Description:
By secondary structure, the chain is an alpha+beta fold. It has 3 domains: about 5-60 and about 200-225, Pseudouridine synthase (2-Layer Sandwich); about 65-200, Pseudouridine synthase (2-Layer Sandwich), CATH 3.30.2350; about 230-285, PUA domain (Archaeosine Trna-guanine Transglycosylase, Chain: A, domain 4, Roll), CATH 2.30.130.10. It has 8 helices and 20 strands. Helix 3 crosses helix 5 (about 175-185). The protein is elongated. The chain starts with a strand and ends with a strand. About 35% of the residues are buried.
Amino acid sequence: MNHFLLVNKPPGISTYYIVERVKEITGINKVGHMGTLDPRACGLVIIGLDKAVRLEEFIIRLDKTYITEIIFGIKSDSFDRDSKSFYYQPVDINVNDVERELEYLKGEMEQVPPEFSAVKVKGKRAYELARKGEKFELSPKKITVYSSKLLYFTKEKFPKALVEFTVSSGTYIRSLVGELGSRLNVFAMTSFLLRTKIGNFSINDAILFKNLRKEWKDRLIPAIKLLNLPTFVIPYELEPRIKNGNPIKTFDNSIVEGTIALVNQKDELIAIAQYDGKLIKPKKVFL
């Protein structure tokens, strides 16, 4: 059963807990997530079943869309509500200020992950070191903000904004919110985070976590549907070679060189392969 499940994660539970629940409900031992969400965050999580778990490297790199509520005039060590220390300041900003700085956030940039994150530092999670008060540095990584749209803004003692971001994989929304606050010269923190899309898949396609047991069998998604890769249909007589991991020759000009997905006549994923213009070389076989 090389399929995926799209799950709408509620706040307050870990992604790992969803994985364990799926194992229990489906009876499948090999289950894994294609990208985690913090326990306080909610929204779309993709769960791989059986051999689909091996596709993580291709799914995790997909672009993602989030909706986040931002509170201005408050900041915390973790950039969100999951902190013991909060700092306050009076602020005087308006909707035009926020829209202007959101526009500047678009594009490619170097981003330093939050100290309270799952990034590994010398074999340990950054959040573990941060909670102990240990000092360390995190290296910046290149990310892209494709869009940043202000959905609403309320002028209060501590103004609030609801913003939709579409970003490249590996982007920390909490860090983006902190950067927005810096550009506005005010404190800012994430008070709510919802992931609404991964690649072309929407939270509207996901199963509510509470409905997993009764709906999972009817909501299975074939692995090939989630892959954003060029596909090549393997003739029936060549399937055994691919399944045995043997390369095949082809001079089909319609195939793009690089990583491709191989499917059979039933549109089932057979393998992930590399094509060099002459040979198709299977790298991961699924049937």
